[in-house]
Amino acid sequence: MRTASEFEEAYERVRRDVDRLALFITRDTDLAKDLLQHALVTAYRHRKKINSDSALKAYLRTALIRMYTRHRVVGDRMNNSLNVADLAFESAPSPEDLTELQLVLDAVDDLDVTLRVPFILAYVEGYSVAEISELLGVGLSAVKMRLARGREQVRQALGEAPPMESRKHHG
User: Would the N or C end of the chain have less CB density within 10 A of its end CB?
Assistant: First the structure.
């Protein structure tokens, strides 16, 4: 992507996914926009090294995660919750589906950021454990542990029993 117009066209093709990730991670529309704007500036500066839509998407995701992590380390805690009304749907979901989705979002929203970010990357964005490990700069075992803890906390929040293999180990 050598030109500004090529960059803009590529961004428009990946925009929806990147916007969604920013909102899921930050839980704050304004902060998501701010971080995404900073990520875009950084990506634009390096546009000559970004040679495809998938590379741009990966670059922006990595930049968003790193910027949000830095933001959290500084100590500015986010208290806003994700709401189904903030999400875009390709088709109108039923009221029952919206209720279930909001319950899941609330459970994910309650996760600590160290569990929420890998959870979203794995189960919303479809990243592998190895990719999450690389993005977050932590080991594979740390990612697996965070995903397991995140799944367990979401299950508990939703009032679900642990899977059969987990029950075998606990009793």
Answer: C
127 near 135, Cβ under 8 Å?
yes
pLDDT at 75: 43
DSSP 75: T
Higher pLDDT, 164 or 157: 157
- Maximum C-alpha span of the chain: 61
Q: What is the DSSP string of 82-133?
A: P-GGGS--SSPPPHHHHHHHHHHHHHHHTS-HHHHHHHHHHHTS---HHHHH
User: How many whole angstroms separate alpha carbon 84 and alpha carbon 145?
Assistant: 28
**How confident is the model over 106-125, as pLDDT tens digits?**
888 888 888 988 888 888 77
Q: How many CB atoms lie within 10 A of CB 74?
A: 8
Single-letter amino acid, residue 5: S
The pTM for the full model equals: 0.52
Residue 144 and residue 130 in contact, taking contact as beta carbons nearer than 8 Å: no
